[in-house]
Write a structure and sequence with these properties.
The structure holds two protein chains of two kinds. Chain A has four helices and nine strands, in the order βββαβββββααβα. By secondary structure, chain A is of the alpha+beta class. The radius of gyration of chain A is 14 Å and the shape is globular. The chains are: A alpha+beta, B alpha/beta.
């Protein structure tokens, strides 16, 4: 079971409320789908500039594995207030710890509600079929 | 009115667009990628004039061959640079990400596509086409930035007489908006910017585009249990291809370097 302290997008991003901010990352399923279990297959993650305003569902970045480039989608609208600079040099943290150390961006949301996203149980069902 | 029988194969679109300019080639692939709701599409094409395509995240400076090349574009898909010349056939597959043909992991979808491409190459006379796995390629060369000079275990390779195992098919995917674009480049003959790679001619096989295209169609139909229906791009796809294509050869896109350009 994936962590139930956060919500999920069908495109495999997760969103966790942290005070006034929403922390965003990608799930272990996304990492596995891109890399097939080989962390060296993830080659680059392009993250946005701090200060950018984004809409819910908008692409905020892109991740490249050896064989595919995929979009990263915003779970909520708001302003990007922080990005994880660790990702630039140590992309392997996405494989090692996608839930905590492997966070990607922090958003100051226009609306803190995450009710429009899937809970862990719904996400498990989503990836099961 | 007659209905299709339940066991009729699914129909995919087959688009053959030979000798297209580089920017339009890329624009049409993006237009098809954005055609949500369209039938899965296999597109076969060649480039005229010859062109060099960079991978989506590649730095222009990391591809020495690009410096003096008169026609450089940047692809929507990742990986290394490719020389698109008269002895090369490009294919693209575009379909919904949820389509079972490309379901599962990214490597799973590669394996299926590569099975079809390998079968097609063998049909035109290239012997023993197979993923590299843990073998070594003589085509792996440092510092060129070229796709065919950097192999992974999934890449399709064959023996070049007198030289050894080399990479002869380059592939990359883009996944966006619930859709997948799978690019592939098949080398039928040699060209100057990609020494040491595998090609059909070097293995004593046909370099005829039409023969390779027919073999690919048959192999895709067999692998994916579908029927490929010769089609034309929709008028709205052609219009979108012109608009979207403009950026692929634009200097700001060709020379961009996201890895160095964020100021962080």
């Amino acid at each position: 079971m994936r962590p139930d302290d956060r919500r999920y997008l069908d495109t495999h991003e997760w969103a966790k409320l942290d005070g006034d901010l929403v922390i965003v990352g990608i799930t272990d399923f996304a990492v596995e789908e891109l890399s097939n279990g080989n962390e060296g297959d993830l080659v680059y993650c392009d993250l946005p500039d701090v200060g950018r305003d984004i809409d819910q569902g908008e692409t905020f970045g892109e991740i490249e594995s050896v064989k595919a480039v995929s979009d990263l989608n915003a779970p909520v609208a708001g302003e990007i207030v922080e990005i994880n600079n660790e990702i630039d040099e140590h992309l392997e943290v996405l494989s090692e710890d996608p839930w905590k150390k492997g966070w990607l961006i922090k958003i100051k949301p226009a609306d803190k509600s995450l009710d429009h996203l899937m809970d862990a149980e719904a996400y498990e069902k989503h990836i099961a079929h | 009115m007659t209905g299709a029988a339940a066991d009729d194969p699914e129909e995919w679109r087959l688009l053959e667009t030979p000798d297209v300019p580089a920017a339009f080639a890329m624009g049409l692939d993006e237009a098809i990628l954005r055609s949500v709701g369209a039938a899965p599409t296999l597109r076969l094409y060649s480039w005229a004039p010859e062109a060099l395509s960079l991978g989506y995240f590649q730095a222009f400076e990391d591809v020495p061959a690009a410096a003096d090349h008169p026609s450089v574009v940047r692809r929507l898909t990742g990986g290394g640079a490719i020389q698109h010349h008269a002895g090369e056939l490009t294919f693209s597959v575009a379909l919904d990400a949820a389509h079972p043909a490309y379901g599962g992991s990214v490597p799973d979808s590669y394996a299926r596509t590569h099975r079809a491409v390998a079968r097609a190459l063998e049909a035109v006379g290239v012997p023993s086409v197979a993923p590299r796995d843990d073998r070594t390629c003589v085509s792996d060369l440092e510092g060129t930035g070229m796709c065919f000079h950097d192999s992974t275990p999934m890449d399709l390779c064959w023996e070049m007489p007198g030289a050894g195992l080399a990479k002869g098919v380059g592939t990359a995917q883009r996944r966006t908006g619930g859709r997948i674009l799978h690019h592939g480049s098949i080398k039928l003959d040699a060209a100057g910017l990609e020494p040491a790679i595998a090609h059909a001619a070097g293995a004593g096989a046909s370099t005829d585009h039409a023969a390779m295209s027919r073999a690919l169609v048959a192999a895709f139909e067999d692998e994916f249990a579908v029927r490929l229906v010769p089609s034309e791009p929709a008028p709205e796809e052609l219009r979108a291809a012109e608009e979207l294509g403009a950026r692929y050869g634009a200097p700001e896109f060709v020379h961009r370097d996201p890895r160095r350009g964020r100021g962080r």
